[in-house]
Every structure is written in structure tokens, then in C-alpha cells.
Design brief:
Its EC number is 7.1.1.9. The protein contains 17 helices and two strands. The protein is mostly helical. The chain is globular.
């Protein structure tokens, strides 16, 4: 794909843009809103990370040391909600806001004011979640899945969490509409759908998933709210309801949600690997179809989270085989990434290290997921640390590693400065090693029978818990290093970045100067 850009004001500096507080409060420029999303998600990562470290410190040895059992369960719950709805999802939306208009040659996102609104919904929701710790009963302690009857017995902190989830869901839906309209209606002349960068494809499909499943979550928590306060009995067996129905509704949202958090990651990896292999992506069309089929299949696997609820055996078999089937398009992606690298002229700058690390560690998470798909095994390890190991391998080593790959890849375009390569590699190797030290032992804890969400445990689990806690603190400190020694110095200064800092990078975003000017593509580029 090559591009020619009309010279007259292609990167117009003619328009004055707002400065100071007004620039950020009333931001309608996609780059500014992308930056707001990224700072918000980094803040939530840090808060959620502190909660995780308190949890791990408590589990360093048997007994109740640091927090009470009630407070412990509140922290486990809030860690999950903040990391999913406050950190990972907004981070990917930040990437989408920054990069999609640049990649498709659009002047901005389709609905600029709605874009601003969808961001400013998030801070109040985050305040509701964080503030619920300070209510009389504390935050909700029902787990991030908020199963009744636990969730119907919690204090006012539960209501705050329900309200926060509603607000974040509205934000997600508005953002998804914006992304769909931008991609479908604002592509540069000559950029057909099958010429689009993979990151745009994965986000287009993710946006449709968001619109499909966020209302389902809203319905589940609304029914819970009316059970709590308005005398309904949707999930109360005594009144003719069914607590397991909540699980069905929740996971019909929850499983596509897992792919909402990984498909944009696949898109980032599909941009980084061809750039540093200096080859086009292998099997582009098959990648598009694999992404679409993952999204479609994600709607028919939800009850694999519920094998232990006493499902009929035919239901177990259906969900078992459907879950195994979804591994096929995921395997296609991994194969295509490896085939892209095969005999490529590879170099291992920091973005490529994160991308290769992502493939390795995400594949481990994929294999443990395949094991959990087997109903008889799943029934044995349901609600143990094996499950925790599995989903942290796909969410931390999946979503987060891809976000880091994307950060190092595009930060020269965002800031106009090159990051320090040595520091980037130091951040990568520390994160990779400490992540595995933290989460790999959890597989063994789970197989030995240690249940999740327990503040105390028998002495035989002590050694692996100690190792996991040391790894968690190492991983956490690596991210503090990232903030203070990579992000902030790169924003403040560093070597000036050229328009195209990576030799093998392709795409319209590398045709604009670094940093990307406030207004780009006022006259759309022509894609040949």
C-alpha cells in the first residue's frame, strides 16, 4: 500500500488550536482524546495494581495478616472491575482514537463531541468504584462477576458498582459507534476494506461486539438492582427466580468481553510483527476472516464458565466442543504471525520484543484455556488458582503486553521523541520474567486444589504463594519503572523522531510528521 498526499495543507498548521485546561476539558481532537484515555487507563492500572499487591502481600503466608477477610474480598472484586473496565478497555480505546484516523486517512473521528463525552463518562465511574471503599459497608465483595445471592446482600458499595458499570457501558457503546462510523465512512479514497491495516479490522469487529454485549451486561446488573431494592425476584429462588440465570446472562456478555479485550491486541501485534520482519503480514485475508469468526463463535461458548452448575450433559458437550472450535481461528493467527517472521529480515527493537513475548505467553494462556474447555477437567479446577493463572496469562500477557508493544511502536508518532531503547528492553525483560514468576506457580496451586478468593489457605500451599508474591512485586515495580523512566522522559524529551522511525513500517500514519500535527489529512490522501 503506497500513499500520495496532496501538498497543500495536508498537515495544516493554519488553524489555531486551544491551549491549557480548555484544550483537554473540551477536547474534540482525536489525538487529545486518545491521550486522555491513555492517561486514564494508566492511572487505573496503577490503582488496580496496588490492590493486586495488597492481595499478594496478604497471601505471602498462611493466616490473616494485613486486611480482614471482608476487605480482602472487596479488594479482589475491585481489582477485577478496575483492571477490566478502567484499565484494559480504555487503553485500547485510547489506541483506537489515536491511530484509526491516522491509519485510514481520516481528518478526525466521525463524532468529535460524542468522542469527548464518551471519555468524560469514565472519571465519574472510576470515582464511584474507588469511592465505594469508603462507604459504611465498604466496596462490593461479590467478585467481579457479582453473582447473586452474594451481590443482593451487599451494602451501598454494590449499588455504586452497578452505577459505575452502567456509565462505563454507555461510554463503551458511544466509543464503538464512533469507531464503526469512522472506519466505514471516512476512509481515504482508494483504501478499500481489504486494504485496511489489521488494527482497524480488529477494532471494527470489536466495536460490533461491544454494541452487541454491553446492553446485556446492563440488563443483568439492572435486574440485580431491582432485586436489591424494588422487590423483584429475578435471581431469588424463593420468589420463583433463578440465581443461575444471572450467570447465563452475565457470561453471555462476559465471554465476548474476553475477546473485546484481546482482538485489538491481535491488531497491534499484526502491525508490529510485519514492521520488524520487514515483510507484509502473511495471509492478510485469512487474518480478517479468523478475527470475524472468533467474534461470531464468542457468542456460543458462554456456558463453559458454568460447567460446575449442573448443566445437562448435552449442554456440556456442546459448550465443550464450541470452546475447542474457537481455538482454531486463534491458532490461524499465531501461525500467520510466525509465518510472517519466517525468513524475514528481523530486528528486535523493543516493540518487536513485546510482540514476540506476547505470542509466547499468550499461547501458554491459550493452551490452559483449551484444558479448561474439557468439561471433566474444568469441573475439578473450577474456582481454583488454575483459572486465575489462565486468565492472567491471556489478559496480562495478552492485552497488556500488546499494549506495551503498541506504545513503543507508536510513541515516536505521539510525542515526536524516541524512547530510550535500553530502558525499553530493561522494562520488557523485567516484566516478562517477573510475570512468569508471579503467575506460572498458580497453575500448580490450582491443580493442588487451592481455591480462589480465599484470604487464608493451608500450609502446604505456602511455597508457591511466596514465589507468586515475589513475582507480583517484581512485575509491579517494573511498571513503576516504565512510568517514571520510560513514559515521562519520552514525553519530556529524547532523540527527535523522524516521520518513519521504523524501516519496515507501512501505512498512512508514517506519512505524517512526528509528532503528528494537531490537524492531519485535511485533504484526504490517495491510497494506491
Amino acid at each position: 500500500m503506497s500513499a500520495t498526499i496532496p501538498v497543500d495543507h495536508a498537515h495544516g498548521h493554519a488553524h489555531e488550536h486551544p491551549h491549557g485546561l480548555r484544550r483537554w476539558t473540551f477536547a474534540t481532537n482525536h489525538k487529545d482524546i486518545g491521550t486522555l484515555y491513555l492517561w486514564f487507563s494508566l492511572t487505573m492500572f496503577m490503582i488496580g495494581g496496588v490492590l493486586a499487591l495488597v492481595i499478594r502481600a496478604e497471601l505471602f503466608q498462611p493466616g490473616v495478616q494485613i486486611v480482614s477477610p471482608e476487605r480482602y474480598n472487596q479488594m479482589v472484586t475491585m481489582h477485577g472491575l478496575m483492571m477490566i473496565f478502567g484499565a484494559i478497555m480504555p487503553a485500547f480505546v485510547g489506541f483506537a482514537n489515536w491511530m484509526i484516523p491516522l491509519m485510514v486517512g481520516a481528518s478526525d473521528m466521525a463524532f468529535a463531541r460524542m468522542n469527548n463525552f464518551s471519555f468524560w463518562l469514565l472519571p465519574p465511574a472510576a470515582l464511584l468504584l474507588a469511592g465505594s471503599f469508603f462507604t459504611p459497608g465498604g466496596a462490593t465483595a461479590a467478585g467481579w462477576t457479582m453473582y447473586p445471592p452474594l451481590s443482593t446482600q451487599m451494602g451501598v458499595g454494590m449499588d455504586m458498582a452497578i452505577f459505575a458499570i452502567h456509565i462505563m457501558g454507555i461510554s463503551s457503546i458511544l466509543g464503538a459507534i464512533n469507531i464503526i462510523v469512522t472506519i466505514l465512512n471516512m476512509r481515504a479514497p482508494g483504501m478499500t476494506l481489504m486494504k485496511m491495516p489489521m488494527f482497524c479490522w480488529t477494532w471494527l469487529i470489536t466495536a460490533y461486539l461491544l454494541i452487541a454485549v454491553m446492553p446485556v451486561l446492563a440488563g443483568a446488573v439492572t435486574m440485580m438492582l431491582t432485586d436489591r431494592h424494588f422487590g423483584t425476584t429475578f435471581f431469588n429462588a424463593a420468589g420463583g427466580g433463578d440465581p443461575v440465570m444471572y450467570q447465563h446472562v452475565f457470561w453471555f456478555f462476559g465471554h465476548p468481553e474476553v475477546y473485546i479485550m484481546i482482538l485489538p491486541a491481535f491488531g497491534i501485534i499484526s502491525q508490529v510483527i510485519p514492521a520488524f520482519s520487514r515483510k507484509p503480514l502473511f495471509g492478510y485475508a485469512s487474518m480478517v476472516y479468523a478475527t470475524a469468526s472468533i467474534a461470531i463463535l464468542s457468542f456460543i461458548v458462554w456456558a463453559h464458565h458454568m460447567f460446575a452448575t449442573g448443566m445437562p450433559v448435552t449442554g456440556q458437550l456442546f459448550f465443550m466442543y464450541a470452546t475447542m472450535l474457537i481455538a482454531v481461528p486463534t491458532g490461524v493467527k499465531v501461525f500467520n504471525w510466525i509465518a510472517t517472521m519466517w525468513r524475514g529480515s528481523m530486528s528486535f527493537e523493543t516493540p518487536m520484543l513485546w510482540a514476540v513475548g506476547f505470542i509466547w505467553v499468550f499461547t501458554i494462556g491459550g493452551f490452559s484455556g483449551l484444558i479448561l474447555a474439557v468439561a471433566p477437567i474444568d469441573i475439578q479446577v473450577t474456582d481454583t488458582y488454575y483459572v486465575i493463572a489462565h486468565f492472567h496469562y491471556v489478559l496480562v500477557a495478552g492485552s497488556l503486553f500488546a499494549l506495551f508493544a503498541g506504545f513503543y511502536y507508536w510513541v515516536p508518532k505521539w510525542t515526536g521523541h524516541m524512547y530510550n531503547e535500553w530502558r525499553g528492553k530493561f522494562h520488557f525483560w523485567n516484566s516478562l520474567v517477573w510475570f512468569n514468576v508471579a503467575f506460572f506457580p498458580m497453575h500448580f496451586l490450582g491443580l493442588a486444589g487451592m481455591p480462589r478468593r480465599y484470604v487464608d489457605y493451608p500450609a502446604q500451599f505456602t511455597d508457591f504463594n511466596m514465589v507468586a508474591t515475589v513475582g507480583a512485586f517484581g512485575f509491579g515495580l517494573s511498571q513503576v519503572y516504565f512510568l517514571f523512566f520510560v513514559v515521562l522522559p519520552t514525553i519530556r524529551g529524547g532523540a527527535a523522531a523522524p516521520a518513519k522511525p521504523w524501516e519496515g513500517a507501512e501505512g498512512l500514519e508514517w506519512t505524517v510528521p512526528s509528532p503528528a500535527p494537531f490537524h492531519t489529512f485535511e485533504n484526504p490522501p490517495l491510497v494506491k
